[in-house]
Specification:
about 290 residues, alpha/beta, eight-stranded parallel beta barrel
Length: about 290
């Protein structure tokens, strides 16, 4: 654990002391129930530059099984792992390629993106970190024996991204029975994108990012297994309404909420009964909800 990680974990201990009287925490502390699954958002992105291999490793160092990432397509059709549709916030694209504003991912080739520094913005010790391709990212997650919550980003910008994502997953060995059953979820804010993935690979677990109206949930349950909303948009009644329905694989719909970055909020949403919590601080959330 890095000094930065240790400092954050120590701070959490103090926060937890203020939360021990909450019923959900009492149940978790007594072992009466397991806490929600914890997903490292863009890797352990509080401790390493988001969506880089370093962030995957930071999650592994913390003992976090699930990592979340974002995939987009380059100009020449290569899947890369990056959140924003532009490269300017998390790389040195403006310096390396001046005059290419707005530095959209879709306007750069994979070879051009591979030249960019995706770590220095976060800290000097990460200088030289690269934007990984999905294939590279899958290899690292596999090496670390982790699991993947993969988000198809801005699918309306990238026609065919679902097909290409499934192709790379298949070539990387991630569409075999073991991975599909236990180690992979594909999600998106685009309902049509989730539908496409489900139609092409009905065996793959899928998630819809958002908070559909309760009345609309049955229509989502036909093609997805998870409803994954912002934590500020839900309460216990909403979570219960989702979980009453069976999803595309005949099991109760799950709720994985995002992005929860402090102990108090983690305890609150755990009390709602969510199945998982997506967070930049996976150690903080884990410690708060166990």
């Amino acid at each position: 654990m890095s000094a930065r990680t240790a400092t954050a974990s120590a701070a959490v201990a103090g926060l937890l002391g203020a939360c021990v009287l909450l019923p959900a925490t009492q149940a978790q502390a007594s072992g009466a129930q397991d806490g929600p699954a914890v997903y490292a958002h863009r890797g352990a992105s509080a401790y390493a530059p988001e969506n880089t291999l370093a962030a995957v490793d930071a999650a592994e160092d913390l003992g976090i099984a699930w990592v979340e990432n974002d995939v987009q397509l380059t100009k020449d059709g290569v899947l890369v792992v990056v959140h924003d549709t532009t490269l300017s916030r998390t790389t040195d694209a403006e310096e390396v390629f001046p005059g290419r504003a707005p530095w959209a991912v879709k306007d750069f080739t994979a070879a051009e993106i591979a030249k960019l520094d995706a770590g220095s913005w976060f800290g000097d010790r990460f200088a030289g970190a690269r934007v990984p391709t999905l294939a590279q990212y899958l290899h690292r997650v596999e090496r670390n024996h982790q699991k993947l919550l993969l988000e198809i980003k801005s699918p309306e910008t990238y026609p065919g991204i679902e097909r290409e994502t499934l192709r790379v997953l298949r070539e990387g060995g991630w569409l075999d029975r073991a991975h599909v059953k236990q180690r992979l979820v594909i999600q998106s804010f685009g309902a049509e994108s989730v539908k496409t993935v489900h139609a092409r690979r009905p065996d793959v677990v899928t998630g819809f990012l958002g908070t559909p109206a309760v009345a609309d949930l049955p229509s989502y349950a036909k093609f997805t297994d998870q409803i994954n909303p912002a934590y500020t948009s839900i309460d216990g009644d909403y979570v219960a309404a989702v979980q009453k329905l069976k999803g595309a694989h005949g099991k109760p719909l799950r709720v994985n909420t995002w992005t929860v970055n402090d102990a108090a909020a983690a305890v609150k949403v755990a009390g709602f009964g969510v199945d998982g919590i997506i967070t930049n601080y996976p150690d903080v959330v884990r410690d708060a909800t166990r």
